[in-house]
Amino acid sequence: MTNTVGKLGFLSVLSIVIGSQIGSGTFIFPSLLAPFGVVGLFGWVVSVTGAISLAIIFAKLAANFPKGGGPHVYVTEAFGRSMGFFTAWIYWIISWSSNSVLLVTIIQYLTSLIGDISPVMTVILETIILFFVTFINANGAKFSGRIETFLVVLKILPLIVFPIIFIMYFNSDNFVISQKPVASNASIIAQTALLTCWGFIGIECATAPANTVNNPSKTIPLAIVIGTSVVALIYIINILSVIGVTGFDALINAKAPYTIAISKVFGQSGNIFMSILAMIVCIGSLNAWTLTGGQIARAAAEEGIFPHVFEKTNKHDAPVVSLWIAAFGTVPFFILEQINGLDSFNYLIDLLVSIFLFVYLFCCFAYIKLAKKLNASCIDYLLAILAICFCVFVMYSCILSSFITLIIFILSGVPVLLKVKHSQCRQQK
Q1: Of 282, 279, 310, 356, which is closest to residue 97 (Cα–Cα)?
Q2: Using CA of residue 12, residue 13, residue 18, residue 23, what is the dihedral sign?
Q3: Among 279, 285, 333, 404, which residue's beta carbon has the most beta carbons within 10 A?
Q4: Smallest Cα–Cα separation from 390: which of 30, 48, 146, 8?
């Protein structure tokens, strides 16, 4: 008989799936999608299909290789330690550099309350928030986990209640097809799929505790598919309801789109509440990804593919070196947004999503390589091909810049890899 005491059940895994994905996307997508009009909404169909296929791939890998650490575990199993290192290196960098999007969103909603502030003050506030969250995580995973549980509850309920209220003020005339020829429909769908894919980044986070899940081969796939579907439903309902209240034109270039919708319904008091909620949601995601980034580097160091300094912990068993390196590394990314404003912000999201998709591609190829070992069926192969096609299609609109960024990330890791191998050779002697 299998011991199930202390194991995570379906509801626990489902909570991880939903909580890891819902973040800043809910509060910025209406503005990001507004320039594309109604056609851009079809990008959601592509994103949802791709997200679910990727989720199942990760679930199957986690069920067969129940080991913490993230995507590099599967790539290492399929292609060796060097490929595993570069996967872990790239994944670690984007896990904390993507926090810049959350910080920018927090400040955008803060300024909707207090008014515009200077770029210098913006950077100062973003740095203070980032370092505060890092300090929380430096006090240990148990402490930051308690805070995260509280924040997850706070952010889910309003995202269900508010769209219901918005429906009463819904105006179908706000959904008009723009007569301005911005691009072909296929191009628009690809661009919006790239943007909306940001909302599903973090699917893989739920596979990390596979070795502590009760019946992982069934529980994880079911929780991920249902959880990702719930996340998609929350996103779509919220975006459609906001657009239905405000219209596309009112949302173009809006820094805090939700406050526009809420102010039309509840006035200034609702605006204040919505801004505070948006900041809470983003801080919750910032906390979760800060925790994840530290654990990625720590796990890689413990396996010997990162330098041992990354596994250095304090009295709270927190990987302090990994956490603070990530914190200081994030600062240049949100400074970049101040250079060109919203255009730079959108470009940064595109770039970060594309790099995440490269990591997902590595895992899909690893799955195909390991398929025979996993006794994969024809449906499993087709699922992997669908996930690969999704990644390639979504990355197509900015493939050159994404590929250049990927090469830069890889080159930045070469000295670290050489140092690790040199240290291992010395130890063997």
Answers
A1: 356
A2: positive
A3: 285
A4: 48
Cα–Cα distance for residue pair 138/320, rounded to 1 Å:
6
pTM for this structure? 0.81
Q: What phi and psi values does residue 180 have, to the nearest 5 degrees?
A: -80, 120
391 alpha-carbon distance from chain centroid: 15
Cβ atoms within 10 Å of 280's Cβ, excluding its own: 17
Nearest to 349 by CA among 295, 281, 397: 397
**Domain extent listing, the chain:** 10-423
CATH number for region 10-423: 1.20.1740.10
Q: For the chain, what is the largest distance between any 2 Cα atoms, rounded to a whole number of angstroms?
A: 74
The predicted structure's pLDDT at residue 89: 92
d(CA 288, CA 102): 11
Cβ–Cβ under 8 Å, residues 159 and 26: yes
Q: Which pair of structure tokens corresponds to residue 140? A: 């240990």
Q: How far is CA 72 from the centre of its chain?
A: 17
The sign one gets for the Cα dihedral 117, 123, 128, 129 is: positive
Q: Tell me the C-alpha distance between 73 and 65, whole Å.
A: 8
Please list, in sequence order, all residues whose beta carbon lies within 8 angstroms of the beta carbon of residue 389, skipping any fewer than 6 positions away: none
pLDDT averaged per 10 residues, the chain (length 429): 55 72 73 74 81 85 77 91 92 88 85 83 92 88 69 77 83 62 62 79 70 72 81 84 81 73 74 78 82 81 87 85 91 76 66 87 93 83 90 79 86 89 73
Asked whether 278 and 27 are in contact (CB, 8 A), the reply is yes
Nearest alpha-carbon partner for 127 in 137, 135, 139: 135
Dihedral (CA of 172, 177, 179, 180) sign: positive
